[in-house]
Amino acid sequence: MASSRDRQRKLARAKLDRQLARRASRTRRRRQIQAGVGAAVVLALIVAGSAWALGAFDEGPEKNTAAEDVCIWTPQDATANTNLKDVGTPATTGLPTTGTRAMTVTTNQGAPITAELDLASAPCAGASIAHLASRGFYDNATCHEITAEGALRCGDPSGTGLGGPTYSFYDENVPVQPEASPSASPAPGQPPAYPKGTVAMMANPPGANGGQFLVFFKDFNPAKPVYPVIGKVTGGLDVITKIGALPTVDNGSGAKVKPKTDVVIQSLTVGEPTTAPAATAPASGAPAASPNAG
After folding, report:
1. Could you report the average pLDDT of every consecutive run of 10 residues in the chain (294 residues)?
2. What's the pTM value of the predicted model, to 2 decimals?
3. 20 to 30 Å CA-CA from 81: which of 44, 105, 162, 192?
4. Do 94 and 68 contact (CB within 8 A), yes or no?
5. Residue 284 in 3-state DSSP?
């Protein structure tokens, strides 16, 4: 009996030893797996950190796409304002933001008026006028107002002051005049905000620019400038000055600002962008040399 019990004990002991061995083996494998996973995690963190440091996670394409979005065109409701004219919308990307574009305005009042649109300071205005000109938006429209500020107001096919395209865009390049004189004459020693020959946008309401623009035939220096400057006259300033001297009549709303003789834009064209610097408005009534036709 004793030998039988001894044999059973030995068998039980052997079974326990095998169980302990298997348990120890599993424990070792588990620890090896855990160690391997830990090492992999550490390696992955090192690789990720290196990639981040090298800029692999920079959102380059998205940033580049955003940088190309030069202008935002806000839709306007033509059913609410029947004076608006739908000629499509300019592009928002790939627009030139340096150099100038030549603008030529031919009216029924004499030689063509030429100007340079400043693309660096007002790229959206340049893009908008070029787009509208390419669609014939300005053809046969009148310059319907000679303003009290000394400017010819043009660019509204409806002739009401309420017209424009079916989009608007924000102000660009509004002059800063912290010490401007409230009169139309510049303060001593200070250039006017709008020198004679300045081309500026005219928005109605302010800040919602469309197609209307001003061409100043005399210096204007308000206490608070509101018109975005978009370019300078380079030729035909004498024509603008002559138009500014035309008699005016009531425009139908009690303001005596409508030219008694119609001033009609027969054509308005905009040339291709050029890298030449923007022209300076002539100091006198004589026109500057005309730019090359574009």
Report:
1. 60 63 66 58 58 54 48 94 95 92 96 96 96 96 95 95 94 79 58 96 89 97 94 96 95 91 96 70 41 37
2. 0.69
3. 105
4. yes
5. coil
